[in-house]
Amino acid sequence: MAESVTAAEHASGLEAYAQAGLAIADEIANRGPIRFDSAGWLHPDILEAYWEHGYYVFEGLIEQDEIELLRADIGYLLEHAPTGKNSTVDTQGRPAVGTEFTRPLFNFIKPLSDPWGGTDLLNGRHPARMVEPQPADDAPREVVYLVTGMCQAMPAGLRLYGHPGVLSIAAGINGDDFVPYNDAIFVKEPGLGGAVAWHQDGVTHWDSPQWDKGIHGFNFQVQLYRCTPFNGLWVMPGTHKLGRIDIKARIAENGGSEQLPGAVPLVCEPGDVTIVNRQMLHCSFPNTSPDPRISLTFGFHRRSSVLGARGALSQTADEVYDEERIFERSRVIQVAIDARAQKYPEETSFTYEPFRGMEDNYRYSDRTYRDVIVDYNLKDLSI
After folding, report:
1. CA distances from 244 to 201, 208, 311 (A)
2. Does the reported pTM lie above 0.90?
3. Domain map of the chain by residue range?
4. 243-254 residue pLDDT tens
5. What is the chain's Cα-based Rg?
6. Number of helices (H) and strands (E), helices first, in the chain?
7. Span 7-303: which CATH code?
8. Percent composition of the chain: helix, strand, coil (DSSP 3-state, to 5)
């Protein structure tokens, strides 16, 4: 595909690729409602499918009333976001939201651009730039690409972090002493949303003697709107088992095209939740479709993968993760569980084993919000 294309040409150029990807996805059929075995663990059929292909789509995991609350919270943030990365006011001239936090909530890019591809950012893990279509003449100069810190900026986001189904999946994959990674909300507005170049998320353990197909953990994406092949995530099934992949070589072997064969789009409805292995080769194209996509993304690790590891992804590069550091970041999970229990008292709460017996110390309150939740993302566990 030529580098200089209109949004309409880009969308048209994806149609055949989308149909091929959908056919592969139908054949694999890695999707369905959450299921458990008789002991309450994630059903072994789901685990087998996840470990074989590196992803799974949990259909309808988040109830629609909760999706509406999440939409309302992210809507408020976007309505009150700065007008750009150097702005302190929103589009109405009001003080922008999020200035009380140490790390900015919003990351901005040029419409339909690929901010990481072909750069050294994020440890250079996005080595090849995606096609960047021409935005409409009336497009804004900058658009929101990521929103970070959902647990401190979105009450519904904090409650989602304590969802019993979500945390049961984390325990099923990474063990009941699992630990958190980070979170980021991808915002892909119609005709404006940027690309995420082909990459693998893992950084730290590629050359480890203990390397295996799960050592870098996995990410959830909770979908607030419908995901299609044109606005959603694409994954390359089975690549989580291959080790570090030469992405530039794959693209070169494909004639320079980013439409790599064998990939599948993760088509979702609102309330569906995807899990993707962080060693999976994956990407998303610029959103030249008419459909919005907002994906609440957050990940979890095995404790053994993090303990003693040195931080990655630049913000923690000089830090070694010891038990105290892991405990500090993991407190957010326990506070989120209680925040959810206060909102949904009829629901059976998840029991997070590292905090069993300490629950009373981490009830959601003004104190724990201030001491545990505010600026929690400065303590993310990145590997």
Report:
1. 10, 12, 19
2. yes
3. 7-303
4. 999 999 999 999
5. 20
6. 12, 12
7. 2.60.120.620
8. 35, 20, 50
